[in-house]
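User: I'm new to structure prediction. If I give you an amino acid sequence, what do you actually give back? Let's try with this one:
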Amino acid sequence: MPFDSKVPGVTILGKVTPQQAQEILTPEALLFVATLHRTFNATRKTLLQKRVLRQQQIDQGHLPDFLPETKAIRDDISWRGAIPAPGLADRRVEITGPVDRKMVINALNSGAATFMADFEDSNSPTFDNNLSGLVNMKDAIHQRISYTAPNGKQYNIRKDGKIATLIVRPRGWHLDEKHVLIDGEVTSGSLFDFALYFFHNAKKSVEIGIGPYFYLPKMESHLEARLWNDVFNLAQDYIGMPRGTIRGTCLIETIMAAFEMEEFIYELREHSAGLNCGRWDYIFSVIKKLRQNPKFVLPDRSDVSMTTPFMDAYVRLLIKTCHKRGVHAMGGMAAQIPIKNNEAANKAAMDKVRNDKLREVKAGHDGTWVAHPDLVKLALIVFNEHMPQPNQLHVRREEVQVTAADLLNTTVKGGKITETGIRANVSVALMYMEAWLRGAGCVPIHNLMEDAATAEISRSQLWQWAKHHAKTDNGVTVTAEYLLKVLDEETDKLAKEMGDQRFKASKMTLAKERLSTQITGKDYADFLTSLLYEDILVYDDVKAKI
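Assistant: Good question. You get back a string of structure tokens that encode the predicted 3D arrangement of the chain. For your 546 residues, that looks like this:
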């Protein structure tokens, strides 16, 4: 029987467990979701349409640049973001991961300063994943979360109080929650995730000495940050919480956002907790936004590093901008994971992490990201040595001068397109998409912890190379036919590795079918997660499918 929301105008199409109904989808909470939807969804849709229009301009040759209409904000040195909130002054190592129960406990216990619990890129947004994740968030904030593994092993949060400060990343503005209708209209994944976490946990988070904290993903305009700020204000007013209690850290993970960093902080001001270098999505965005322009064809992903000109410029500008405005400048992700049974390979991987974190702390970052609990200690050693104080807000970086040309300088010295790189992109995209379709959004592949950003880079590079008939280092022209042949070969290789029974039980055939539409240089979905979303929808009543 379909779930009865008991709220006029709110229809729940997905399957709901008794626990999810009792703990999360309460009538009071759903009324709050509906209030946010009715107030803000029209603005969200308008802003998404502005993205489409801006893409058309870029495709016509109008490259991104700093906005003349907001120059006064950038030139005004008098304004600042908010002072660090409780639990956010020292963010030297942040661990990130999906919202499954065991991961949440391990991350909270990891020794990291904060834990970003992710409803976005490392979460496959099945309705059950989202609702179970919200149950886990509520249990974490109320400090009652525990888990018993199938083998009987018990997981509990540590009792010494040294658990990570929880920060939640809701889905981006572009993602819908199609299992929920408000007045017959599909609701926003962003508003759904935010509303239900905030409603159930905001007051308790303050009671335990922190607050309702969020990471804000995938924004392309300061107007999208303004929308978040409006959401924050209404939400706080709704439950009687003082404005400025919420904090939001903006992920600078789109090329458009790089030109509006100060504006993002300005729009959030009393709610701003700084900016973060979302490096993998940033590379994806550069390829995506400039994909029609042959001047911006990038080489193999492995050749694009943090010292590549456009990446280096973006990092330097972010640190300078944040510290100018008194907020944290957070570094990027170390995706490496420990490699068992291969000491040499594991040492090489850990050396990469160490060098990456050393570069970040010396550049002036106030903290960094890791994807695995075993990397927390390594990152802490580096930051503790070079940042004995809680942060580096005093490192002004006033010598930094970054121009629009610097942010768009995609020259990669010695970079090449290779068959190895092509096959790696096909393989990674295929394996990640297959896992995502099974409901897993955070996947270890080739000794890296991958999320949607990596698959996005992979398929976008393949599309770009096919579109512009790029040549490999061996002189082979990359065409749609060539890439589809490689896709067949890589799928066959995986089929042999998996065995017939396991392959047939997997989502590999569907993943291949979906990927094949994205690598020919023709059709290009705005996001892979949007492309695949229909495939993971499960309705409580098949007649309800929209």
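You can read the tokens as a compact description of the fold. Here is one thing that stands out. The chain has a mean pLDDT of 97.
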